[in-house]
Structure formats: structure tokens, C-alpha cells
Write a structure and sequence with these properties.
two-stranded antiparallel sheet; alpha+beta; elongated; 2 domains
């Protein structure tokens, strides 16, 4: 295990959660934009393609990624599961042939809960980096 493994893993979490907060802010900003679809950030573990299960640790560690390397952003995708809201506005320029305006599937309450979750995860990654830095500093102090 490398000296900076925990810092590197936490830094990937910082980047991922920052991107998630940016996407959530974009969703809130477009709450009244017709035809806008809520966006979601999809994470996956870094090195997931190299995971081997039911293999002894000595064999698995040769050329294969191990857990705890952090996360990467797999993609930012539209939320297709939540239905769009509709409003009957036949005079609106973005209304369809039947006079319905398709409004975003963004719920501000849901977005705020997601924002709190992302900010807490960001804070947890910062705390992990601070704790690792403190441990490394104390270990260096022992060598003096």
C-alpha cells in the first residue's frame, strides 16, 4: 500500500462530488426551462474492470487493481425514469401540437437533499485527507 493511497482515493472523491454539486446546481438553475431533463452523475469505482473475486490476495495483487483506489465519473446522464411535468399552454412557443408544454422533471426539494448529501461526502473526503496528513506528519516526527 502506497503512502499516499488514501489521499489519492479521497482526491478522486473530491472531484466526483464537486462535479455532482455542479450538476445539481445546473438542475436547480433550469427548474423552469421547458424541455430540460434533470441530469444525474454516475460514479463507479476506479479500476473496477480489474476486480477479481474469490482469488487469493497474492494472486489478485499481480497486475490487478485493488479496492480503495477511489472513484471516477462514468457519465452524466439524463434522468429518464422521472416523468416530465406538463402544463397546457397553447400559446407558448415551445408547446407541442396539442398545446402542452413539457416542463423539467426537476424537484427542488430532491435537488437540495442531493446537494446536502454531496456536500457532506465532500467534507468527509476533506476530513480523510486531513487525517492522513496528520498521520504522515506524526510518523515523520517519530523519525526526528
Amino acid at each position: 500500500m502506497s503512502l499516499f493511497t488514501s489521499i489519492n482515493a479521497s482526491s478522486t472523491g473530491l472531484t466526483a462530488q464537486r462535479t455532482r454539486m455542479d450538476v445539481i446546481a445546473n438542475n436547480i438553475a433550469n427548474v423552469d426551462t421547458p424541455n430540460y431533463r434533470r441530469q444525474l452523475v454516475i460514479f463507479r469505482p476506479k479500476g473496477e474492470e480489474g476486480f477479481i473475486f474469490n482469488v487469493p490476495m497474492a494472486k489478485a495483487s499481480i497486475g490487478v487493481h485493488q479496492m480503495g483506489e477511489g472513484v471516477i465519473i462514468e457519465k452524466i446522464k439524463d434522468d429518464d425514469r422521472t416523468p416530465m411535468r406538463t402544463a397546457w399552454m397553447p400559446g407558448h412557443p415551445d408547446a407541442d401540437a396539442n398545446g402542452y408544454l413539457h416542463l423539467p422533471n426537476v424537484n427542488v426539494v430532491t435537488e437540495m437533499v442531493d446537494m446536502i448529501d454531496a456536500s457532506r461526502a465532500y467534507e468527509a473526503n476533506v476530513s480523510t485527507i486531513r487525517a492522513a496528513k496528520g498521520m504522515y506528519t506524526r510518523a515523520l516526527d517519530l523519525l526526528r
